[in-house]
Amino acid sequence: MTPALRLSGVHKSYGKVQALRGLELQVPRGVICGLVGPNGAGKTTTFGVVGGYVQPDSGSVDLLGQGPFDPRVHRGRVALLPQDCELNPHMAVGASLRFLGRLQGLSAAQAASETDRVLDLVDLRDRAQMRIRQLSHGMRRRVSVAQAFLGQPELVLLDEPTAGLDPDQVVRLRRLFLSQRGRCTLLISSHVLSELEQSCDHVIFMQQGRVVRAGPIAQVTGARSMVRIRVEGDPAAAARVLSPLNPQVDGDCIVLHGASEDTLAELNRRALSALLHAGIGVLELRAGQSLEAALLGP
Fold first, then answer.
1. Best exposed site among 38, 44, 220, 289 by fewest CB in 10 Å?
2. Residues in Cβ contact with 154 at an 8 Å cutoff, skipping those fewer than 6 apart
3. Packing angle between helix 93-103 and helix 108-121, nearest 10 degrees?
4. C-alpha distances in angstroms, 37 versus 11, 212, 218?
């Protein structure tokens, strides 16, 4: 199947600063994909190139199998939420979304229906008549996210959608993103790796304008081939109890490796049985390591 998004050999410089250096990137269709990297990695420039408002110096961009962004081809099919998106503060929430829906090519009736639908998605239907300036920061951000889902686009790019939000607002948006899995392709840029780990099933890690690691999160974190066990007391002593399973000690954890999920399940059963039989308490058992540890290391 053609990827939802593919960038090949993309270069972009701003004077002497190379923002993208031969960027190779693919996002499979239907996934929730996290785009990760430090400041200056090129994430925002990548979004600009995909959205068509930053022209690359070279390379190719393909959206939904139909070439680079073209409003005649992709209008209503591709949506983008920039990091610092601000809607007109003087417009009412509902009126603003209906206006944006019409710009996407929706009829007046469709724009009204879609406005109600996306406000339901972000739990703000009751604020439709309020002016945007009257909303809290978190509510304004949720309205901005809502506009990205108008018309049910096939590809949605969200640049730092949860930046500056309190935990309750973050949870609300996470539920929204998860509800869209399989309905569209989401590419979410964020610095909060723990949040991406709960939302995404695919991840792309950028450094200095290049992709340095990419794939399903379960593959990147080793969730299908590794289990980490944290025990009471000395992990080295616990590892000796598990010596038939070829354990490794990593800090305060014992690590077991398997060839498949079925193998891991059997390893877990044998490890827990041996540890409990030896009177060693198990504090935590985790499939793989955290996304932060997998991408950034110790």
1. 38
2. 4, 64, 77, 78, 184, 185
3. 120
4. 17, 10, 18
Its sign, for the CA torsion 201, 205, 206, 212, is: negative
Q: To which H or E segment does residue 221 belong?
A: helix 217-221
Q: Residues 46, 50, 56, 60: is their CA dihedral positive or negative?
A: positive
CA distance 296 to 140: 32
CA-CA distance, 141 to 161, in Å (whole number)? 7
What's the rounded Cα separation, in Å, for the pair 204 and 188? 10
Residue linked to tokens 């932060």: 292
**In terms of pTM, does the model score above 0.85?**
yes
| Length of the chain, in residues | 298
Instruction: Note the pLDDT tens digit of each residue in 175-228.
Output: 999 999 989 999 999 888 888 888 999 999 999 999 999 999 988 888 888 889
> Across the chain, where does the E strand assignment appear?
5-14, 17-27, 32-36, 58-63, 78-81, 155-159, 185-189, 202-207, 210-216, 226-231, 248-250, 253-257, 282-287
DSSP notation for 92-109? BHHHHHHHHHHHTT--HH
**Rounded distance between C-alpha atoms, residue 266 and residue 154, angstroms:** 40
pLDDT digits (tens, 9 = 90+) for 82-114: 887 889 999 999 999 999 999 988 999 999 999
Rounded distance, CA 291 to CA 148, Å? Answer: 27
Beta pairing class for 202-207 and 210-216: antiparallel
The rounded distance, in Å, linking the Cα atoms of 187 and 236 is: 42
